[in-house]
Amino acid sequence: MANADSIIAIYDDYYTDGKVAAKREIASKQSVGHIETILEGQTFERILDIGAGEGAVLDKLNKKGLGKVLGAVEISASGLEAIKARKIANLASLDIFDGYHIPHPDKSFDLGLAIHVVEHVEHERMFLMDAARVCKKLYIEVPLEHTRNLTKAIRMSGPYGHINFYTPLTFENLLKTSGLKVEKLTTFGHDLAYEQHLAGRSKGWLKYKLRTEFLKFAPKVAVRNMAYMAGALCSAK
C-alpha cells in the first residue's frame, strides 16, 4: 500500500461480496452496542461515519435515533452504492474520500465514528488528525489482535486488509500521539452472535464464554492471549 490510490483500488469492489456484508451486519450490532456503552447517555446531534462501509452502522444509528443528522464518507465505490440502497432517512450527506482528506469544514460534526477502520489505514495519524479536524469528538474502535500469537493474527486478518495490529497500550498511544485526549477506553469481547457466525453454534458459544470470562477475571492476561476489541471516546486536545 504505497498511497491513497492503491488503497482505493483494493477496496473499490469490497462490498459487492455478500459474505462480507453478512459479517458486517452482525458486527455492526455489537459496535453500536459498544458506542452506547461508552457514550453513557451522551447525545450528539450531528454524527459522521468515517469509513462507513456498506452502511450497516448508519442504518442502526438511524433506527435508534442516535443523531438527528447523519453523514458518511467512504473510500469504496461499492460501499457508497450499498449505503444509497439502504435509503437511510436521517442521512444528510454521503461522500467519497481518499482515506485521509474528509470533505467537510472544521468541527462541522459533533461526533465522528471510525469503526474498524484504523487497522486498515497506512498513515493512521494523518487519518485521525483530519477526523479530529472535522469532528468535535471521536469514537474509534479497533480489533486487539497483537497477542502472543501475532503470526496467526496476521495470517487470518491480512486477507481482510488489516495492516496494523494493536494492544490496548499501543492503541491508546496511537490516539494520544495523534493529538487526541482519551476520555474513555474500554476493551470488549465479541458478542455471542458474532462468535457463532464465525465458529458455529456450539463452538461459538464456548468461545464466547471463554473470551468473556477470561476478560472479566484476568484482563491483562486475556488481551495477551486472545483477540478482543477496544473502543475509545476522544476529543481534540
Give Rg in angstroms. Answer: 17 Å
Termini Cα gap: 30 Å
Strand order of the largest sheet: 3-2-1-4-5-7-6
What is the count of distinct domains?
A: 1
CATH superfamily annotation: Vaccinia Virus protein VP39
CATH topology: Rossmann fold
The major β-sheet equals: 7 strands, mixed
| Strand composition percent | 15-25%
**Helix run count:** 10
CATH architecture: 3-Layer(aba) Sandwich
Helix content: 40-55%
What is the mean pLDDT?
92
Structural class computed from helices and strand pairing: alpha/beta
Low-confidence stretches: none
Strand segment count: 7
Q: Which series of helices and strands comes N to C?
A: HHEHEHEEHEHHEHHHE
What is the global morphology? globular
Q: Please identify the top-level CATH class.
A: Alpha Beta
Could you describe the 3D structure shown?
- There is one protein chain.
- The chain contains ten helices and seven strands.
- β2 (69-74), α4 and β3 (91-96) form a beta-alpha-beta unit.
- It has a seven-stranded mixed sheet, with helices on both faces.
- The protein has helices spanning 4-11, 18-39, 56-64, 77-86, 124-134, 150-157, 168-176, 192-199, 201-217, 219-225; strands at residues 46-50, 69-74, 91-96, 109-115, 135-144, 180-188, 228-236.
- The protein is of the alpha/beta class.
- The protein starts with a helix and ends with a strand.
- It has one domain: Vaccinia Virus protein VP39 (Rossmann fold, 3-Layer(aba) Sandwich).
- α8 (192-199) crosses α9.
- Helix content is 46%, strand content 22%.
- The mean pLDDT is 92.
